[in-house]
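[agent] plan:
  1. take the single chain provided in the ticket
  2. run structure prediction with default settings
  3. attach structure tokens to the ticket
  4. add a short note for the reviewer (M.T.)
[agent] executing step 1
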Amino acid sequence: MTNGALVSIIMPTYNRVDKIATAIESVLKQTYCNFQLIISDDGSTDGTGDFILKNYPQVDYIFSNHAGQAAARNKGLSLAKATIIASLDSDDKWGPEFLETCVTKLEADNLDFVFTNWIQQFTNGISTDFLSEDLFLRPYLKNTDEKWQMLSEVQLRKLYLKACPSPSSSAVMRKSSIVSGWNEKINISDDWCLFLDMVLTKNCKAAFTMDVHWNKYINSNNIFDGRRRSELLELFYIKDTLEFMSRFKNKLSKSEFKVLNRRCVRAFVELAKHHVIDGFDIPQSARLMRNSVKLSVLDTVVAIPDVIFFGLNRHFKDMLLKFKKRYKRA
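[agent] step 2 finished; step 3 output follows
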């Protein structure tokens, strides 16, 4: 397809010279051919720039000092020539019909953004159809016979306050719907913040499909999946959520604000538990619990048994998995 609207594709990267070719090739093999590919290098030191300039002279390549993925995406956005924007992470891979499928729907229904399902592939070889297991998205699967599921303004606000079912590689959006780019204060969830900016500021309309159109590969370099649980609690569930609460406070109702507040409280409690169990750091655990109580005494009390049950459940599943592995070996 060559006669559609121009799409600017932003590909942020940092020290992924061994993986980025797969991502680039998946763009070049798209059935939708009218695109601009921008590779925004966030200060790589592994020869990424030389590799791209030598092997892919047709792409727009920009190098900046290391400042994080959000800054790299914004650098790419500043070079975007199109009115439609997509962003593919440099360790992911689009299926050949990803752009054609998304742009066709975006244009046909004049939507702000669309996103698709994906296969998530873990280091242990297990793969999963991600959105089919997304409990937050499940209530919006009204008619499974339809290729696309529509999301209204009200539904988008409710959904994106609880979760982000559209990581960067999965979405295509209108440039005019982007409020202020990717938030460079965010540690991990810059894509989530981008969509919250949109759905809390504008009367957005969106759609998603359960059809699989890309692959996500889990490795130690992933911004989210490559981190320990304690790191995610501190950076993603606490610091990023606090930034959400500060940024969107005046755009949220009291009940909406409580959704974010409870998420942060629970993270404080779980991280406090980690410091007690993993390092027996009682003072740090006590500081975290005080921060939780400052946000909400009631939510803290409710979170404590929930965190304990969650931990026991994970421990039981780990033990069961180890038992199954030993049984297979025997």
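[agent] step 4 note for reviewer: The longest helix spans residues 297-329.
[agent] ticket updated
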